[in-house]
Amino acid sequence: MSVEYSTPPCVWLVDDDDEDLLLMRAAFNSVDPRIEIRTMADGEDLLPQLQDTRPFPHLILIDLNMIYLNGFDALAQVRALPQFGHLPVVVLTTSNNPADRQKSTALGANDFHTKPDSFPDLTQLARDLTRQWLPETPL
């Protein structure tokens, strides 16, 4: 089965904090304005959006602490379906708890990052994520 990814590259942000969504969008925009950003305000939106969308996003960033469906449960839902097993899902959260990192990894997260405290650090994280998961995007 061939996988069809979006062009231009697309990153999905799943977080219920509007300010964090705004800052992450701005960080990716400063790295490469061609990267399309799609936002969802809760984990309960992720699986239905994935089931209804083609082509696939290049990367999904998901927060752990959301009101209706937290990041752990949303990640478990995505990883329970083989057709989404290839999608990179990275946890981006305020937590620096090693148990949260371990649980995220056990549920199938490709990586885990604690949200940086400054915009320059957030931009550097967006640059690193772009290099790792959107390799065809020239920086």
Compute the separation of the termini in Å: 30 Å
Q: Which strand order spans the largest sheet, edge to edge or round the barrel?
A: 2-1-3-4-5
Content-based structural category: alpha/beta
Poorly predicted ranges: none
Protein name: Response regulator
Pfam family, one: Response_reg
Domain Response regulatory: 10-130
Modified residues (4-aspartylphosphate): 63
Structure characterization notes:
The protein has 139 residues and is α/β, with parallel strands linked by helices. It is built from five helices and five strands; from the N terminus they run βαβαβαβαβα. A five-stranded parallel sheet has the order 2-1-3-4-5, with helices on both faces. Helix 1 packs across helix 5 (119-133). The longest helix has 15 residues, at 119-133. 30% of the residues are buried.
Summary tags:
40% helix, Response regulator, phosphoprotein, globular, CheY-like_superfamily, alpha/beta, 5-stranded parallel beta sheet, TCS_response_regulator, 5 helices
